């Protein structure tokens, strides 16, 4: 699973990345978490608002910092 | 040295203590509400559509109020629009208007410097937005290679639900009424009116919204507080210190009156130095007490939060150096003229 956090290094984006890592750890998912900071990539991925979480090309969250719980729920749904 | 620190602390007491409850708390709640209740994705969809310049520029100016309230989100939003196919004019209007006049900045400006200054700030920012948008699209008309958005509009979700719209309106009342109904008398009167209105919207929220929505709203509000409040405290302290150190005669000589030169200098200070969101208002208020004219004050209010050296570099990195150069030059020229014009013809006694 490839999880990308989109954001230009603002505190909200860092918090998002941390929550993503925590959610993965809690679920035991061995995912590659990357941080995309180039705004040109945002448009290409269909991300309008940052911070955004994109899993294998699908935008799961955008424009807010998802909580660990929300991330767990969404990731679980993707896995099943 | 001690004097200087005391001046900084006094400024903190003046600007923050008397504004936290009746101005900052409701403003943060309003900004948080806008972020969590307003469907910004839908607004951005509208902005990406093909339409006439007049309508897309107006839409972009209005949308900026709702799309981003802090400068850290505005560059990704603007570049996302640009690389997603919106016109360059629209992208730079968002880039300009959102920090120059967002809801937080406006309310703080209004309560520190008066409603007329806040109103001037909105009007001037929107006039400048149209000119900046036109300039950018004129200069870079041919360069835009991003895929053009499809002309037909798809069905979209609602921008804002009725219930949350009414809630935002109530929060807005709790922000405006204490500051505009009670102009004199002890600060406590304002606090009482604020408390009554706050209880009112809290009850309304509890009755109409699901707990999840309320939690989300408070979470977004807390983000604004966390991001902006520490910088505001620091900024206000620094402003107090600067006000103590700068000789009044300098301010009068360089920024006094409403001449083109003072306006240009004020614009330049605003365009180069970094102001954390909201700190421009106490800075301008301090300088005005030391003799800065109203026109230059407006120019500094406009360019302060919208532009800074780090911000130029970020824009250059994302949009390219040439666009950044044209943008910054246009803003500095326009800021100077707008400051001069408002100082001589609008604020003139």
UniProtKB/TrEMBL annotation, chain A:
The keyword Disulfide bond applies. Keywords: Disulfide bond, Redox-active center. Disulfide bonds join 10-13. Gene3D superfamilies: Glutaredoxin. NCBIfam families: redox_disulf_2 (TIGR00412). InterPro entries: Thioredoxin-like_fold, Thioredoxin-like_sf, THIRX-like_proc. This is Thioredoxin family protein. The active site is at residues 10, 13. Residues 1-75 form the Thioredoxin-like fold domain. SUPFAM superfamilies: Thioredoxin-like.
């Amino acid at each position: 699973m490839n999880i990308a956090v989109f954001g230009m290094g603002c505190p909200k984006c860092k918090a998002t990345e941390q929550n993503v890592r925590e959610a993965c750890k809690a679920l035991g998912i061995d995912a590659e978490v990357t941080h995309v900071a180039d705004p040109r990539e945002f448009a290409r991925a269909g991300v309008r608002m940052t911070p955004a979480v994109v899993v294998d090309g699908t935008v799961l969250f955008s424009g807010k910092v998802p909580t660990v719980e929300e991330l767990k729920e969404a990731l679980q749904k993707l896995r099943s | 040295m001690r004097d200087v620190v005391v001046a900084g602390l006094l400024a903190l007491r003046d600007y923050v203590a008397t504004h936290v409850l009746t101005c900052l708390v409701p403003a943060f709640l309003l900004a948080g509400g806008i972020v969590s209740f307003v469907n910004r994705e839908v607004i951005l969809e509208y902005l990406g559509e093909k339409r006439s310049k007049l309508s897309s520029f107006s839409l972009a100016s209005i949308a900026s109020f709702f799309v981003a309230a802090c400068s850290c989100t505005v560059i990704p939003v603007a570049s996302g629009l640009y690389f997603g196919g919106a016109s360059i004019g629209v992208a730079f209007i968002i880039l300009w208007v959102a920090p120059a006049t967002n809801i937080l900045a406006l309310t703080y400006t209004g309560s520190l410097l008066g409603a007329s200054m806040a109103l001037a700030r909105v009007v001037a920012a929107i006039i400048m937005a149209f000119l900046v948008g036109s300039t950018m699209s004129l200069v870079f008309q041919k360069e835009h290679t991003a895929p053009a958005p499809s002309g037909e509009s798809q069905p979209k979700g609602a921008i804002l639900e009725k219930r949350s719209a009414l809630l935002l309106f109530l929060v807005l009342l709790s922000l405006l009424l204490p500051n505009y109904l009670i102009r004199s008398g002890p600060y406590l009167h304002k606090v009482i009116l604020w408390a009554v209105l706050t209880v009112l919207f809290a009850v309304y929220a509890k009755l109409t919204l699901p707990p999840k929505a309320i939690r989300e709203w408070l979470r977004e509000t807390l983000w604004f507080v966390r991001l902006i409040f520490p910088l505001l405290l620091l900024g206000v302290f620094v402003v107090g210190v600067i006000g103590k150190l700068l000789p009044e005669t300098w301010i009068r000589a360089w920024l006094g009156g409403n001449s083109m030169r003072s306006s240009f200098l004020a614009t330049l200070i605003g365009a180069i130095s970094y102001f954390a969101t909201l700190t421009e208002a106490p800075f301008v208020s301090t300088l005005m007490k030391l003799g800065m004219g109203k026109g230059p004050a407006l120019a500094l209010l406009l360019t302060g939060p919208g532009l800074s050296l780090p911000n130029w570099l970020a824009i250059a990195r994302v949009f390219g150096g040439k666009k950044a150069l044209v943008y910054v030059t246009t803003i500095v020229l326009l800021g100077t003229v707008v400051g001069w014009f408002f100082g001589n013809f609008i604020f003139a006694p």
